[in-house]
Specification:
Blueprint: E1 4-14, E2 17-28, E3 32-36, H1 43-50, E4 57-65, E5 68-69, H2 75-80, E6 83-86, E7 93-97, H3 98-110, H4 116-129, E8 140-141, H5 147-161, E9 165-169, H6 177-194, E10 197-202, E11 215-220, E12 223-228, H7 230-239, H8 241-244
Parallel strand pairs: 3-10, 3-11, 6-9, 9-10
Antiparallel strand pairs: 1-2, 1-4, 4-5, 7-8, 11-12
Helix pairs in contact: 3-5, 5-6
Length: about 240
């Protein structure tokens, strides 16, 4: 069986307005597929629909995960099947440490009750892989975090939860160049270690200098207008959307 996340003829509306107007897109295990488009084009709508956000109404089309129709599945069901989403603006949760948050999420997704000690050892291993300081996991989730630290926390979530497919919504948002390099390096490590499929949503080319895509889609006005490889992203950076299309 081919392991893939697949969208077929997807149409999505929000409050009666059509945002996504019939797209087809496939991410295979081990691939990096990029969705690029200007602000307000509907890229984040696709991310939210893939994770089952009830605010968005799928009016036509299907979403498949490993050939299973998940179009109407709940968010937690999709997560348990191996789907993960990182947010453009991760929420802050005061009073909940990153360790406790991750242990709760791990137990929920894996259907287990891992001991505190066993989880500590697991977390320590993942943090060593990502070269994170020990005190990072003891901080309250995203509270007082810089943009780069929030993205690093989500990379740690990826490492611990080990999804099959990750939807990364503007991972480069709010990060400086040094943080971006570290985040990209961590994503590359996890992709190789887990053979993870990645749908990377962005409107900048800069992250693609560090995470090389297998395929690039240009998404404007609810539709995929052009598809290519990394060179298409470079051309877009140099010429802009109008000249490209």
């Amino acid at each position: 069986m081919t392991e893939e996340l697949r969208i077929e003829n997807l149409h999505v509306s929000v409050e009666g307005k059509e945002i996504v107007k019939g797209i087809n897109l496939t991410v295979k295990k081990g691939q990096v597929v990029v969705l690029m488009g200007p602000n307000g084009s509907g890229k984040s709508t696709i991310a939210n629909v893939l994770m089952g956000n009830q605010k968005y109404n799928v009016t036509k089309g299907k979403i498949y995960l490993n050939n299973e129709d998940i179009t109407n599945s709940k968010t937690e069901e999709r997560a348990k099947k191996g789907l993960f989403m990182s947010f453009q603006y991760p929420a802050e949760i005061s009073g909940v440490t990153l360790t406790n948050f991750l242990r709760t999420a791990y137990n929920s997704l894996k259907g287990t009750n891992i001991s505190v000690l066993d989880f500590y050892n697991l977390l320590k291993e993942k943090m060593a892989l990502l070269k994170m300081p020990d005190d990072f996991s003891r901080r309250y989730l995203n509270e007082g975090f810089s943009g780069g630290e929030k993205k690093k926390a989500e990379a740690l979530q990826l490492a611990v939860l080990e999804p099959n497919f990750a939807i990364l919504d503007e991972t480069d948002s709010g990060t400086d160049i040094d943080s971006l390099k570290i985040i990209a390096e961590n994503i590359n490590k996890l992709k190789e270690k887990l053979n993870m499929g990645i749908l990377l949503i962005t409107h900048y080319n800069r992250i693609l200098e560090y995470i090389k895509p297998d395929q690039v889609h240009i998404f404007i006005d609810g539709q995929i207008k052009k598809t290519g490889n990394y060179e298409l992203a470079v051309e877009l950076e140099n010429k802009g959307y109008e000249k490209i299309l």
